[in-house]
């Protein structure tokens, strides 16, 4: 019989980020029982989305700070928290509750066994609706946007990279998840870029490495040639950039199953084909992650705008320069929210630390 603490934990996780929805089978409770001990679940309920020291938390809940620190360190190792590592001597660790995504799920994939992967796949396939705006934003590859097109700053992958202070790169969580399920992928593995607070976290945890802005831009070109889709965490100032394999990415796979992915995807572009220039090479069909391009009865590439998510992968490799990206009509464009719901802004989370006060120990 499932302990009541896991029901409370499920509800708390569903309040954060894109949520952690209930299913009819309650498979999500089985997941939580494998990921959290009851003690850890109880401690998680005492965390907030602001950074707090173990001493602050202990004072609030009336427990010994050393005991709380021990539990939080164990939870951090398991990916239950986003910590801020000490920056100077005698400074404490600070902890904030990691949401299910981006957070716990991404961390667990690093050390996931097949049993847990199967449960999580069942939860994904149950199709629970996420809360708030869509978590990711599809960004066109730079080579697909012509100079005459005015591109909004939040849709310009290179301009966003250039404004970041800290950038790290880490392995794709979806890659590791599919591997745990027994599937293999030949695409690049080290493809996810984290910014600022989250970049620091991945480096501090030994899950990522620092890269320069020039290296990041060079990587983007490499990923575009390989057919990976740029997806930012959906906000004006995104905290992460995933370069996603259509065969591995949970988000792209979910979109692909829909009859009209363009209606759901956060994207402002769609591809069009100039029939006169089409060489019928079929390259675009192979590149499209949504199966949005087919050959028409008269043997010319045809774009299904209900399926096109405006990634531009077809445009960047069109041998006859027949394909191009067009902006959607104004009433169909989707601007990202100022503050995304998937990841708390770096400045906000780092600014949440309160001055250290003396904590009484029992």
Task: Provide structural commentary.
It is a single chain. The chain is an alpha+beta fold and 362 residues long. The chain has three domains: 122 residues, Winged helix-like DNA-binding domain superfamily/Winged helix DNA-binding domain (Arc Repressor Mutant, subunit A); 120 residues, no CATH class; 74 residues, Alpha-Beta Plaits (2-Layer Sandwich). It contains 16 helices and 13 strands. A hairpin with a 5-residue loop joins strand 11 and strand 12. Helix 1 packs across helix 2 and helix 4 crosses helix 5. The C terminus is likely disordered.
Blueprint (SSEs and pairs):
Layout: H1 4-15, H2 27-35, H3 38-44, E1 52-53, H4 54-61, H5 65-77, E2 81-84, E3 94-97, H6 100-108, H7 114-125, E4 136-139, H8 157-162, E5 167-171, H9 173-180, E6 190-195, H10 196-204, E7 208-210, H11 213-225, E8 229-233, E9 240-244, H12 250-256, H13 261-264, E10 269-273, H14 283-287, E11 293-295, E12 301-303, H15 313-316, E13 323-327, H16 346-350
Antiparallel strand pairs: 1-3, 2-3, 4-8, 5-6, 5-7, 6-9, 8-9, 10-13, 11-12
Uncertain runs are: 358-362
Say what oligomer this is: single chain
Report the CATH C-level class of the largest domain.
Answer: Mainly Alpha
Compute the number of structural domains. 3
> What would you call the shape?
globular
Q: What percentage of the residues does DSSP assign to strands (E)?
A: 5-15%
Mean pLDDT: 89
Q: What is the structure about, briefly put?
A:
This protein has helices spanning 4-15, 27-35, 38-44, 54-61, 65-77, 100-108, 114-125, 157-162, 173-180, 196-204, 213-225, 250-256, 261-264, 283-287, 313-316, 346-350; strands at residues 52-53, 81-84, 94-97, 136-139, 167-171, 190-195, 208-210, 229-233, 240-244, 269-273, 293-295, 301-303, 323-327.
